[in-house]
Amino acid sequence: MKVEEFFSYHKLLIHMFCFSVSDVLDDRHLLQLAKRIAADWDQLAKLLSVAAEEISELLSSEGHSYQGAFRMLYEWREASADLKTSHESLVAALRQLGHSDAVELILS
């Protein structure tokens, strides 16, 4: 494990045990995150298991805009029952898509 991964992992653990997803990802953070992932928010939505119908509806109304990304993230956050698993899923999905900058936003 690289040093950066080690520290990122420990930051994640601290956040998971000290904060809920809604605490860490308040609307301000969601907006910042949405602006970073706007081009491929639909791919992130799929990785987060957002229903295909919801993705399709958002794509038709918002396209690949940060507004669409924000709405998807907001609805995903509000529907998340298990906050710890949701936070882990979001970080893992962002990493899978190559959005290390967005991961740092969440963990900072």
Write a brief caption for the model:
The protein is 79% helix and 0% strand. The two termini are 20 Å apart.
The low-pLDDT segments are 15-23
Mind telling me the CATH superfamily name?
Death Domain, Fas
CATH class: Mainly Alpha
> CATH topology, anyone?
Death Domain, Fas
Average of the residue pLDDT scores: 82
Explain this structure to me?
It is a single chain. By secondary structure, the protein is mainly α. It has one domain: Death Domain, Fas. It contains eight helices and no strands. The longest helix is centred in the N-terminal third of the chain and has 16 residues, at about 5-20. Mean pLDDT is about 80; it is low at about 15-25.
Features:
108 residues; mainly alpha; Death Domain, Fas; 0% strand
Ordered list of secondary-structure elements with their pairings:
Elements: H1 3-18, H2 21-24, H3 27-37, H4 41-47, H5 52-62, H6 66-79, H7 83-96, H8 100-107
Helix pairs in contact: 3-6, 3-8, 5-6
